[in-house]
Design a protein that fits this description.
Number of strands: 13
Number of helices: 5
Radius of gyration: 17 Å
Distance between the termini: 29 Å
Strand order of the largest sheet: 1-13-3-11-7-6
Order of helices and strands: EEEEEHEEHHHEEEEEEH
Number of domains: 1
Largest sheet: 6 strands, antiparallel
């Protein structure tokens, strides 16, 4: 992991809540699953050109993978790298299953509104994203396929997907090193395939750290040829900004 002495900020996000912030290039966002069983849905946008956003299909295709873990980079729809996964103790993060919505949460766990239940209400990922996006003048049309950190998906021989808890443990962490300034929108609502009987409530700690500079032998940069091209795209982008 990045040296903890470089931690600049720490906060906790309770279960079923949402937040957003702009991560500056050269900094790392660390996510920690405090209790085990958490899910962190996340979207990325270019804060200076909000039309540019995370593209999960391209991210997976160009790196020839179904899962995301250490060594993978997370790409925009303009071929830039928002961030690189430089450390990961969990080992398997989802980019294909999407998000919960109000109807899904009500069907799986029952509806609980904020007006009636206050902090014990049951929020969903779709509405969480929309609340945060509205702060930046964005809405439903600006939604993209999202990441789900700390969620492993198993696929059988028939292509059926299921939620796999075999590697879930308290204290799992992932470090995202940002290669360009990035608007980060995230929530701690349940994964859409989570099969538990009760609405899952697992908080997440997030930390901002100063990152080391990218060297020629960087693991993420050299994990595949496509990532070398992505870092060159960022180099040209950053020359102009």
């Amino acid at each position: 992991m990045v040296d903890s002495n470089n931690i600049l900020y720490t906060d906790s996000l309770p279960a079923g809540t949402h937040w957003s912030l702009t991560m500056k290039r050269g900094h790392t966002l660390r996510l920690i699953d405090d209790e085990g069983g958490a899910n962190v849905g996340m979207l990325f946008y270019n804060p200076y050109n909000l039309l540019e956003r995370i593209n999960i299909p391209d991210t997976l295709k160009c790196q020839h993978t179904f899962k995301l873990t250490k060594g993978n980079c997370l790409y925009s729809d303009m071929g830039h790298i928002f961030c690189s996964i430089i450390e990961d103790t969990f080992g398997w993060h989802d980019g294909v299953c999407g998000n919960t919505n109000q109807a899904m949460v009500a069907s799986k766990w029952g509806a609980k509104s904020y007006q009636e239940f206050r902090n014990d209400w049951r929020q969903n990922g779709n509405d969480s994203f929309l609340v945060e996006l509205a702060k930046y003048g964005l809405g439903t049309k600006d939604m993209a396929a999202n990441l789900n950190f700390f969620s492993k998906i198993a696929v059988d021989n028939h292509g059926n997907m299921s939620y796999d808890t075999s590697i879930t443990k308290a204290g799992s962490a992932i470090d995202l090193r940002f290669e360009m300034d990035t608007l980060v929108v995230f929530h701690t609502c349940p994964h859409p395939l989570n099969p538990v009987d009760e609405y899952p409530k697992h908080p997440v700690t997030y930390q901002i750290l100063k990152a080391d500079s990218v060297q020629d032998d960087d693991f993420c940069k050299n994990s595949c040829v496509e990532n070398q091209h992505g870092f060159m795209n960022n180099y040209l982008y950053n020359l102009q900004n």
